[in-house]
Structures are given as C-alpha cells and as structure tokens.
Amino acid sequence: MKIIKANDGPLTNFEVLDYLRSRGASKEVAVTVAPSEYKVFEYLVETAACNQTREHVTDFVQKVKTYNLAKAEVLNIINIRPPLPVGIFTIVENCDARLGEAAAEELAEMVSETLPPPLAQPEIQDADQLDETIADGNPQPIADSDGEAA
Amino acid sequence: MFSLSLIEHTLRLPPHLLGLSLEKAVRHELEGLFLDKVIAKLGLCVSVYDIRSINGGFIFPGDGAPTYTVRCRLIMFRPFVGEIIDAKLKDYDENSLRLSLGFFDDICIPPHLLPTPSHFWPDPENGNRRRWVWEYQTDDENQTSGSMFAIDEIGATIRFKVQSISYPSIPLEQPNSSKPFAPMVVTGSIDNDGLGPLSWWE
C-alpha cells in the first residue's frame, strides 16, 4: 500500500454523517454499512451534526469570514456548535486578544441562529439528505485545500 | 476529526467475487482490508469514500485471481492537535481518565492535564472508592475552602482538547496479563475554560 496524499482534505462531522446516510445507515436499518461504520454513525448522530444540512454549513462558513478565524477553529465550531460564549473561548485561541467579549457573544449568537440545535429530528432531515446526495454525483468536501467554500 | 487520505494499493481479487461488478468487488475487498484498522500516521480507517481508478487486472502465472492497482480515498479518523471533541467517560484510575467515542476507545487524559489543582481522593458516599476531584479555588484572599467538582460519572460526556496522537510500535512479546495493545492513542487535556464534563459548564 502506498500513501499518495496523507491529507486530502479535512471533513466536518456533518459530511461524514451525510456520506454514511447516503450509504444507507439510519437509526433502524444498518445492513448496507459495516458494523464499525455503524458505530461511527451512532456517535455522530448524537452530536450537533445530526441536524445540519449543506446549506447550514455553507451559510455559516460565509458568515464567519468576518471574524478571521483559522480553518481549524471554524471546523471545531461546526462540529461542536457552542451556543454560549464560554464554548467560543474554548475553541478560539487568544480569544480575548483577537475577539474580545462582545465579539465572542455575537459569534455565539450567530452560531445558535445559523446552525440547528442538536435535538433529535432525524426522519425529516433524512429525506432531504438523500435527495441532495443522489443529485450530487461527486460530493466535494465543503472547504477544500485552498480554503474556498463550495 | 475526520479527513480524507488518498492511497494506492495493489490487491488480488479472489475469484468468488468476480460475479459482482468490478467496482463492487474491489470495494468489498478494500473494506475487508482497511475498515476499522489503524494505519500509522494516517489514523483509524472509518470508511472507503470513493474509488478514483482501477488499473491492471493482470493474472500472474500460477495464480487463479486477477491483481488490480487501485487508487481510492479513505475517510480516516485523525483528530488534529488542538481539536475539541466530546467523548464519554469509560473508566478512571490514578494514572489516567479513559474516554471512549464508541468507535474509538483509546483516549487517555493523564493527571498533569487535568485542571489544576485536581486530587485523587476517596469518595465518602461511595464506600471510599477513590475518584478525581477538581478543587476550584476562587481568587479572593480567603482561600480556605474551594468548591469541589468530581469527575466520576461513568458515561458522562466530557469535552477535551486533543494534546497529541501517538502510534506506538507493535510490541514483539506481551505478558498475558497486560492490557490489549492500542495501535493509536490520543492524549487529551481538560485544563482550560469550557473543558471537562459538560455538566460543569451548562
């Protein structure tokens, strides 16, 4: 086995969940995916990624550009979805110097508005997800290596 | 915590799979080979994302099966340093807290990365079994008593920051009583604002 490119692009939890759903994983049925893949699915479905859609994530990436955050920090925020400023302080390094308290609160509010809360609503979302992924022949990661949003 | 890795692999396709379409057969073989296995420096393979190209198909003399050179992308679980992850508390002892993600169990928080000061004290309510307790001291002059926050609920969700990932090399011999070998170990820290059990920050 030869490694051609060790890091071909980071994936948000949402994208992995989306991919597993398109392969047929869901809460009731798990025949088409391997047991180890299903464990990943079970983990992801309990995080904030379970209700996100592609629009939510691209929308958020667009809006967060004004805050000048590193790509890793944006990825962390999408995966964790902190609704409170204390979560922002955890994720953003040197938060006081770069953002300050007011901006951190603003960012936390924007996160709560743009990304959906992780309450369980899998049935409605599943239908939307499947329609999107069937149309999309070659799904691209949201943020690819040169930093542009899809 | 996930990323894609592009690899090239030469694999032999067993004849009993030749009834399937080529792509399905190759995917089946790749999944058997890589799924749920740790690849050094790349992480834990979660899934085969897509197959970029399949070349070859030659049959070597004396062999009954074709050999293909396949390029594919795998979804690898490889958290980066500084990433914040929520995991469940699986077990704890005086040397570490062990957390689990369901699909990955070898996350370890060593004592020096717990919020300072933390102590491993006996729990009076639980038959004096020892557990980790964080002593939160406020900044005033009167520091005689701080509030105690215990980390002892098995199954509670803990938010931690990835400190490092190591891939220890496979030991040649292991004594029978030691823990099973962990090919990938994630070391985490909860020594910061917003980290630790989620119940502390809600």
UniProtKB/TrEMBL annotation, chain A:
InterPro entries: HRDC-like_sf (IPR010997), RNA_pol_Rpb4/RPC9_core (IPR006590), Rpb4/RPC9 (IPR005574), Rpb4/RPC9_sf (IPR038324), RPC9 (IPR038846). Keywords: DNA-directed RNA polymerase, Nucleus, Transcription. It is found in: Nucleus. One of its GO terms (cellular component) is RNA polymerase III complex. GO terms for molecular function: nucleotide binding. GO terms for biological process: transcription initiation at RNA polymerase III promoter. SUPFAM superfamilies: HRDC-like (SSF47819). Belongs to the eukaryotic RPC9 RNA polymerase subunit family. This is DNA-directed RNA polymerase III subunit RPC9. It comes from Punica granatum (Pomegranate).
From TrEMBL, chain B:
Residues 83-201 form the RNA polymerase III subunit Rpc25 domain. Keywords: DNA-directed RNA polymerase, Nucleus, Transcription. It comes from the Eukaryota. One of its GO terms (biological process) is transcription initiation at RNA polymerase III promoter. It is found in: Nucleus. Residues 8-64 form the RNA polymerase Rpb7-like N-terminal domain. It holds the Pfam family RNA_pol_Rbc25. The keyword ATP-binding does not apply. One of its GO terms (cellular component) is RNA polymerase III complex. Its main location: nucleus. PANTHER family: DNA-DIRECTED RNA POLYMERASE II, III, DNA-DIRECTED RNA POLYMERASE III SUBUNIT RPC8. Belongs to the eukaryotic RPB7/RPC8 RNA polymerase subunit family. DNA-dependent RNA polymerase which catalyzes the transcription of DNA into RNA using the four ribonucleoside triphosphates as substrates. This is DNA-directed RNA polymerase subunit. It comes from Punica granatum. The lineage of its organism: Eukaryota, Viridiplantae, Streptophyta, Embryophyta, Tracheophyta.
